[in-house]
């Protein structure tokens, strides 16, 4: 199949072609999904190096699962988000820098953030605040507000009810507001 | 929602939007590692393709019987084994029949004759038998 036509295929169709030995499908999936996986891993871990390792491990699992993939059961990206989250949670638990059920404390953001009122500084501040959230809240907030998934999709990924997802994202957002509220001027946000 | 809450909400939404736009991108080295893994895994599929195809057969009962016969066929060594088995069977059959025909001829040639010949001697047989014992 010509490359242009392959580009039109969905993730699942490409994965099935990959399982049948199509090397072009591997290239397209790599280009399409590695950024998604890496970004999500980074949001959950806050460490670029570790996020790269998780991204590679996750993509390897995708290649390995391809022959057993059951068409129509789940979206490839849903599966990937779940694998990334599991890998990240394992790493976070090993770090033990944040207690599992810790109350969302305001993140201890680097002083340098105050000196930079640029987009990257705002993103760093957000990442710092996300890192301060309990893991499940962070995962729910990232999936809902940064990855842009629906609550039912998140419920499937996190193996929760939709109500539980809503509760987690609400608590997560409260935690972020508390963490970032004190720094709104540094970040260039003013009260109206 | 209070004014302060609305402001906080708007600020947070703006941060989320910025974060979406500034997602970290994979560098060439990571993409290369991912592609290299893909090639390695895919090479494994090719090696496993034949057994996989055979395992996929027994989806229907009719196929399952064919697979069992196929297994027997493979167990005896395929077509070469089947040829050998046929030759051995034919030889065994010949061997089984040949001694019956050959033994009679051999016995006759050595003068043992048949029981009917001995029976035909009647009283002479008893006489000859007595001579043998004396």
Architecture overview:
- The complex is a heterodimer of chains A (192) and B (134).
- Chain A contains 9 helices and no strands.
- With 192 residues, chain A is mostly helical.
- Chain B is mainly alpha-helical and 134 residues long.
- Chain B has 2 domains: 30-79, no CATH class; 86-134, no CATH class.
- Chain B has 6 helices and no strands.
- At the A-B interface, helix 3, helix 4, helix 6 and helix 9 of A face helix 1 and helix 2 of B.
How would you briefly describe this protein structure?
With 192 residues, chain A is an all-alpha fold. Chain A has helices at residues 3-7, 11-19, 23-45, 48-65, 76-95, 119-131, 135-146, 151-158, 162-181. With 134 residues, chain B is mainly alpha-helical.
- State Rg of chain A: 18 Å
Shape of chain A: elongated
Please indicate the count of domains of chain B.
Answer: 2
- Care to count the β-strands of chain B? 0
How many helical stretches of chain B? 6
| CATH topology description of the largest domain in chain A | Rna Polymerase Sigma Factor, Chain: A
CATH superfamily of the largest domain in chain A: RNA polymerase sigma factor, region 2, helix turn helix motif
Structural class of chain A: mainly alpha
Largest sheet composition of chain B: none
Which H/E pattern describes the elements of chain A?
HHHHHHHHH
Pick out the low-confidence regions of chain B: 55-59, 107-114
The CATH top-level class label of the largest domain in chain A: Mainly Alpha
User: Rough shape of chain B?
Assistant: rod-shaped
Strand % of chain B is under 5%
In terms of quaternary structure, what is this? Answer: heterodimer
């Amino acid at each position: 199949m010509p490359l242009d036509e392959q580009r039109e295929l969905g993730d699942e169709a490409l994965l099935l072609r990959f399982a049948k030995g199509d090397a072009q499908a591997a290239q397209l999936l790599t280009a399409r999904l590695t950024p998604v996986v890496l970004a999500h891993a980074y949001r959950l871990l806050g460490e670029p190096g570790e996020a790269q390792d998780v991204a590679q491990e996750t993509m390897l699992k995708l290649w390995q699962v391809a022959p057993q993939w059951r068409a129509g059961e789940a979206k490839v990206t849903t599966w990937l988000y779940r694998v990334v989250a599991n890998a990240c949670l394992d790493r976070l638990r090993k770090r033990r820098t944040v207690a599992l059920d810790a109350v969302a404390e305001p993140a201890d953001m680097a002083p340098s953030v105050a000196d930079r009122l640029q987009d990257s500084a705002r993103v760093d501040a957000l990442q710092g605040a996300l890192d301060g959230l309990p893991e499940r809240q962070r995962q729910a907030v990232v999936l809902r507000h940064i990855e842009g998934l629906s609550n039912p999709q998140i419920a499937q990924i996190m193996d929760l009810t939709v109500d539980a997802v809503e509760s987690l994202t609400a608590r997560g957002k409260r935690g972020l507001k508390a963490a970032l509220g004190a720094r709104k001027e540094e970040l260039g946000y003013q009260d109206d | 929602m209070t004014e302060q809450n609305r402001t906080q909400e708007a600020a947070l939404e703006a941060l989320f939007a910025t974060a979406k736009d500034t997602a970290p991108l994979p560098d060439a080295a990571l993409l290369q590692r991912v592609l290299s893994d893909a090639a390695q895994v895919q090479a494994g599929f090719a090696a496993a393709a034949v057994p996989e195809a055979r395992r996929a057969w027994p989806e229907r009962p009719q196929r399952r019987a064919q697979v069992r016969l196929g297994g027997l066929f493979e167990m005896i060594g395929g077509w070469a084994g089947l040829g050998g088995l046929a030759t051995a069977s034919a030889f065994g059959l010949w061997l089984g029949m040949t001694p019956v025909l050959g033994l009679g001829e051999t016995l006759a040639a050595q003068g043992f004759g048949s029981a009917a010949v001995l029976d035909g001697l009647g009283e002479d047989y008893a006489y000859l038998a007595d001579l043998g014992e004396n």
